[in-house]
Amino acid sequence: MEAGTQDTAMAIRELTLPIHQSKGWLRLLGVLSIISGIFSALTIVGILYAWLPIWVGVVLLQAASAVERAHLTGSKEVFYQSLSKLKIYFVIQGVTTLIGLVIAVIVFFVAGLGAIIEAVT
């Protein structure tokens, strides 16, 4: 049983290596995202969505810490936790990007409609 556990730990260390090597970038993006959220919170409109970049930043910092722990310990559970945090990050980014695209299309449509109405009158 001891050999199987060591083999699993070694496999986890190998699997976490690419993410472990980029943990500094994860932390940098996390900190920058939190700072962005704090600056957004200083504006009237930004206060409505400032929680989102702060949440994303915290998730990235948690993912970086978890992947570091998984790489050091070889723990399958901690590795899974780090991947779950990265999943949350990508889901949030995907949803916010889609919402932004929908809003942009609506704005362009309304602006185009306003220009057409203005040209007719």
Explain the overall architecture.
By secondary structure, the chain is mainly alpha-helical. It has one domain (2-86). Helices cover 88% and strands 0% of the residues. The protein has helices spanning 2-21, 23-41, 51-73, 76-120. Helix 1 crosses helix 3 and helix 3 (51-73) packs antiparallel against helix 4. The protein starts with a helix and ends with a helix.
Quick overview of this protein structure:
This protein has 121 residues and is an all-alpha fold. It has helices spanning 2-21, 23-41, 51-73, 76-120.
Question: Topology of this protein?
Answer:
Blueprint: H1 2-21, H2 23-41, H3 51-73, H4 76-120
Helix pairs in contact: 1-3, 2-3, 3-4
What's the domain count?
1
Let me know the average pLDDT. 93
| Gross morphology | elongated
Intertermini distance = 82 Å
Helix/strand order: HHHH
Structural class: mainly alpha
What proportion strand?
under 5%
Low-confidence stretches: none
**What is the radius of gyration?**
21 Å
DSSP, total strands: 0
